[in-house]
Amino acid sequence: MAESAALVSAEHLVVRRSGKTLLDSVDLDVAPGEIVTLIGPNGAGKTTLVRLLLGLDRADAGRVIRKPGLRVGYLPQRLQVDPVLPLDVSRLLTLTRRARVPAQHAALVEVGVPHLLHSPVQSLSGGELQRVLLARALLADPELLVLDEPTQGIDFTGQAELYRLIARLRERRGCAVLMVSHDLHLVMAATDRVICLNHHICCHGEPESVRVHPEYLALFGPKVAADLAVYAHHHDHAHDLSGAVADGHEGH
Amino acid sequence: MDDFVLRALVAGLGVALLAAPLGCFVVWRRMAYFGEALAHAALLGVALGLMLDVAPRFGIVVTCLVAALLLVALGRHQPRLASDTLFGIVAHGALATGLVLLSRMESVRVDLFAYLFGDILAVGSTDLAWIGLTLLLVGLAMAWLWRPLLAVTVHADLAAAEGIAVARVHLAFMLLIALVTAVAMKVVGVLLVTSLLVIPAATARHFARTPEQMVVIAALVGMLAVAGGLAGSLGLDTPTGPSIVVVATLLFALGLLHTPRDEAPVSR
Q1: Rounded mean pLDDT of chain B?
Q2: pLDDT band per the 50, 70, 90 thresholds, residue B105
């Protein structure tokens, strides 16, 4: 799967922490414009891998190659601004990057929350905050969006909406997306490629092939696998799970 | 106005100005205990300075900085102990060691009360020059550090992913705290330095809608506390450092009466 044009590549990454191997010879490529989803049980090393790809931590062995000058937009797993810090959305958008108010407004329009520009950050709901953080990432005109469990703390409907938004952003802007997720059902619909990680890469490929992979089933158990089958059957988009189909659901 | 009163006022106002931006970051970053630990370590710095026959001021800055680095290193390698426990140990360990060392120094007469609670009425022109110099330095450093430090305060990893040298920003911030502790000690003393950082900033929160507003309001509150405390201590013949902190605390209590317009209902 090595592509010379990859935005970011991991080669044989190994990470050990206090005697445990968190990542064992992990390879990964993200090509321009594709949506790659990392799934795996808790403690499987998903966040560890993302941090390496972002350059936040170093691996014990192996290497990360990023396209020179790569523009990355990052959404961390949790962002909580202490109420003692008076900060509105506009300031959050421009913490590390200057942007004029029209540009800020345009980015918020793109994620559907333009009315929040001057709201205190602490007053946002979980879903609103994630959208604002997405807008923040968009201001950098990213080639790669990295999202670590973007739907944590958001209700089910909100999660589906957020995944559809991510799929739309990819279509409009052509940026690649690498996300970590627990929401197996929802992720399947909004991703080109799934990588199933449990310290090593168990399996990877298109969602449909991963879904029936024995290692995947072993990892998530028959219960989840069954739920997933019901879900796929219920919605009957087994072969064309694309942004277009997902978008079609938005009308109601 | 007597000369010594005027010098005390200028020194106090200068320190209030210095404390405002750093105090806001201490409050935003929940580092009040960290500041407290550094301030307590300052007394050890005085003792070491006197022992090594260098100006206590240098002893304080160096000791505070070493204590800061020690706290960061301990926090990283002692995951079993919560940081407030570590801060408590370093703070009181350093304070006690400072007291013991000072008591052993027979050749020097040390006015312990002045170090513990400040001696603003004894401010000399050298002290004023130091405060002025520190003000200039901290002003320049904060202008450079403001945006990156704010970004790191909101989310360190996010800032790092966006190209900010987080470790360098932290180090610079700790150096500034050490510097301000060294000059603020003269005004309110080791035991009350943190209050000068924290109380005006906490008071300002009720009125501020942006980070910058909070710093400006904290500076005003700090200066009001200094002027009020100085006047009160001269009128009532009370110790000046504690009087300043009492006025700051009263201002904070008054601020509680004000209901901010942007009170964020944080309900998730």
Answers
A1: 88
A2: confident
Q: Which of A54, A82, A123 sits opposite B28 (nearest CB)?
A: A82
- For chain A, say whether B167 makes contact (Cβ under 8 Å): no
Q: Which residue of A has its CA nearest to B164?
A: A96
* List of chain B residues whose C-beta atoms are within 8 Å of the C-beta of residue A50: none
As its CATH architecture, domain B3-256 has Orthogonal Bundle (1.10)
Question: B46-68: per-residue pLDDT in tens?
Answer: 889 888 888 888 888 889 888 88
Is residue A228's pLDDT more than 60?
no
**Amino acid, single-letter form, for residue B235:** G
| Closest listed residue to residue A147, CA positions, set A181, A121, A171, A173 | A181
Which residues between 212 and 241 in chain B have a beta carbon less than 8 angstroms from any beta carbon of chain A? 213-214
What is the structure's pLDDT at A97? 86
Of B30, B151, B157, the CB nearest to A76: B157
Candidates A18, A66, A79, A84: best to mutate against B (most CBs of B within 10 A) is A84
**Subunit contact B160:A87, Cβ cutoff 8 A:** no
Tell me the C-alpha distance between A246 and A27, whole Å. Answer: 30
**Matching residue, tokens 């399996």:** A203
Q: All domains of chain A, ordered by start, with CATH?
A: 8-71+142-251 (3.40.50.300), 82-141 (no CATH)
pTM of the model: 0.85
What distance lies between CA A92 and its chain's CA centroid?
20
Inter-residue contact B200 to B221 (CB < 8 Å)? yes
